[in-house]
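Whether sequence alone determines local backbone shape is best considered at the level of individual chains. The sequence in question and its structure tokens are set out directly beneath this paragraph.

***
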Amino acid sequence: AFENCTKLKTVTIGNGLEMIDSETFRGCTALTTVTIGDGVTNIGDLAFEGCIALTTVTMGKNVATISQGAFANCTVLISLTFTSTMEQWNRFSFGTNWRKGVPATKVICSDGEVALG
């Protein structure tokens, strides 16, 4: 839908959407901030891959799956926040290379931080 958009700077996904489809925001080179609502449960393959200006992502409490390469090559992504608990984060299903090239080293959850290994 927005793949390779070069003007989009911020995205707020409301609570009515359940899934961010594969490659939806792939290559959006000006995108800096993403807020994902509580309705989203799945972030699809390569959904934000190559968003080279993306620094901040906040995920709603019902995200459970981050698919293959979803944030790959987001080379300045330093802030990941998950609005639910560390326990819920640790139950996520992660696709291969979901954060390849991402410099963030932790996720901030509602009750603490989880190191990204």
